[in-house]
Design goal:
Helix content: 10-25%
Number of helices: 2
Oligomer: single chain
Largest sheet: 4 strands, mixed
């Protein structure tokens, strides 16, 4: 069963490392132009968490996963929440995963 973690914005120079020991990858979702939670923080968390993937949405929206999310976001997140599986790669114009 996948685990859900909520990350709040913080100091990118903080000394605390976040790297939970998990069997499966953790899915992080970030929007490149999010005015409330900077994309740089999502990338920073991704670098700290060795068992994670960052799903990126090219958008100015604050919330990437909602009822109006593009299919590349909703399908990837839905599949992850149901099966715990993530695609190895995704390039679909608005979305990418790394």
């Amino acid at each position: 069963m996948p685990r859900c973690l909520i990350a709040l914005p913080g100091d990118p120079k903080a000394k605390r490392q976040v790297n939970p020991k998990t069997r499966d990858n953790i899915l992080l979702v970030g929007s490149t132009g999010d005015p409330a939670t900077p994309y740089a923080m999502a990338k920073h968390v991704r670098k700290m968490m060795t068992r994670s993937k960052l799903l990126t949405l090219e958008s100015w929206d604050h919330t990437s996963y909602n009822s109006m999310a593009p299919k590349c976001i909703s399908k990837t997140v839905d599949d992850y929440l149901i099966s715990g599986q993530l695609p190895d790669s995704l390039q679909s114009g608005l979305c990418s995963i790394e």
